[in-house]
């Protein structure tokens, strides 16, 4: 069996640009991509905290240190500069692959500077039966 797992997340990033006249994708500062384990052209899901819009597209790297989060193409109608977003990187994984998964959560400030990176073990909370 394959499960769809969250393998990385950029939490509460600020959209810096929205470019309608572009083929598509989301442009992300490559430092954020590396920390969240997102590869160039990997599919990601972006959720807008302002209006609950979810969009799936592929990620392309912006220069490291640029702090760019730019929605390109059609999602420019749904995401605006200043909006806060959650960017999820997901993977189809076997039970064996899941055993070694350590999802990373990248926290950023309002200018998309990394403030903290957490790596998580997969476990059930104490007191919860499987």
Automatic annotation (TrEMBL):
Pathway: Cofactor biosynthesis; (R)-pantothenate biosynthesis; beta-alanine from L-aspartate: step 1/1
PTM (free text): Is synthesized initially as an inactive proenzyme, which is activated by self-cleavage at a specific serine bond to produce a beta-subunit with a hydroxyl group at its C-terminus and an alpha-subunit with a pyruvoyl group at its N-terminus.
EC number: 4.1.1.11
Reaction(s) catalysed by this chain's protein: L-aspartate + H(+) = beta-alanine + CO2
List of residues binding substrate: 57
GO biological process: alanine biosynthetic process; pantothenate biosynthetic process
Protein name per Swiss-Prot or TrEMBL: Aspartate 1-decarboxylase
CC cofactor note: Binds 1 pyruvoyl group covalently per subunit.
Localization (cell): Cytoplasm
Modified residues (Pyruvic acid (Ser)): 25
Family of this protein: Belongs to the PanD family.
Keywords for the protein's UniProt record, in alphabetical order: Autocatalytic cleavage, Cytoplasm, Decarboxylase, Lyase, Pantothenate biosynthesis, Pyruvate, Schiff base, Zymogen
Species name: Ornithinibacillus caprae
Subunit record text: Heterooctamer of four alpha and four beta subunits.
């Amino acid at each position: 069996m394959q499960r769809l797992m969250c393998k990385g997340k950029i939490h509460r990033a600020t959209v810096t640009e929205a470019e309608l006249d572009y083929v598509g994708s989301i442009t992300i500062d490559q430092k954020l991509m590396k920390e969240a384990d997102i590869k160039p052209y990997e599919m990601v899901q972006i959720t807008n905290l302002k209006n609950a819009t979810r969009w799936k597209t592929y990620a392309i790297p912006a220069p490291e240190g640029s702090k760019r989060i730019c929605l390109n193409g059609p999602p420019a109608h749904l995401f605006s500069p200043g909006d806060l977003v959650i960017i999820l990187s997901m993977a189809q994984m076997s039970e064996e692959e899941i055993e070694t998964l350590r999802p990373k959560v990248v926290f950023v400030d309002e200018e998309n500077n990394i403030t903290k990176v957490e790596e998580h073990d997969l476990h059930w909370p104490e007191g919860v039966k499987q």
